[in-house]
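User: Here's a structure from my thesis project, written as structure tokens. My advisor, Dr. K., wants to see whether a designed sequence matches the one we expressed. Can you design one independently, without my sequence as a hint?
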């Protein structure tokens, strides 16, 4: 399997357990400036909302050998309606259909929104070279637990282990190396967290010379 670059939705991936527990505020991330945020406050406000942009960052690095900061990607996506900040200042998104338009226009990537789609169907599509941003509950980082619901977080599904019939993915909010990159779970375990929806990004053919 081709090595796929990993990026967390927080710049300091080793500090994710502290951000998740609340023992460290994201504004204290020493690498915040790599995100493309204008200041620490902007980074702290958005870092917990940009799992989708971290997945896109991984995709662009994977397919196009192009690395773009997550907050920069968020701002571009927001211009398409992929994120909305309401009058109360609440961040809403990622909205899938505007995101599909965004990556088509900006990166020439063809994608489609999947709904009511079992993970077994995605398992078969991955074999065709496609990748998938799957909506899962964030507690998938600890797959032994029972999630309170399904969905709410995006992970980057890019491979499968045929011998063990497991899917392979990167989790931008994983709290340890083992829960961050090249995570392998059976379809049955994955399904406990999976909301049966996500974004399928279609293989563009030979993954060479894709940049415009």
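Assistant: Designed independently from the structure alone:
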């Amino acid at each position: 399997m081709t090595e796929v670059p990993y990026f967390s939705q927080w710049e300091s991936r080793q500090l994710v357990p502290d951000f998740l527990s609340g023992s460290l505020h994201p504004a204290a991330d020493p690498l915040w400036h790599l995100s493309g945020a204008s200041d620490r406050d902007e980074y702290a406000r958005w870092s917990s909302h940009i799992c989708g942009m971290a997945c896109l960052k991984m995709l662009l690095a994977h397919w196009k050998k192009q690395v773009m900061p997550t907050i920069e990607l968020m701002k571009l996506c927001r211009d398409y309606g992929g994120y909305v900040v309401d009058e109360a200042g609440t961040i809403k998104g990622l909205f899938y259909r505007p995101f599909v338009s965004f990556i088509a226009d900006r990166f020439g990537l063809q994608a489609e929104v999947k709904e009511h789609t079992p993970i077994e169907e995605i398992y078969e599509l991955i074999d065709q070279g496609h990748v998938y941003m799957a909506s899962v509950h964030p507690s998938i980082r600890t797959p032994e637990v029972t999630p309170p619901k399904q969905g709410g977080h995006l992970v980057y599904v890019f491979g499968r282990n045929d011998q063990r019939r497991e899917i392979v993915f990167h989790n931008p909010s994983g709290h340890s190396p083992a829960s961050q990159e090249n995570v392998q779970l059976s379809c049955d375990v994955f399904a406990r967290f999976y909301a049966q929806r996500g974004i399928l990004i279609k293989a563009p053919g030979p993954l060479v010379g894709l940049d415009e």
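When you compare it with your expressed construct, this may help: Residues 57 and 68 are 6 Å apart (CA to CA).
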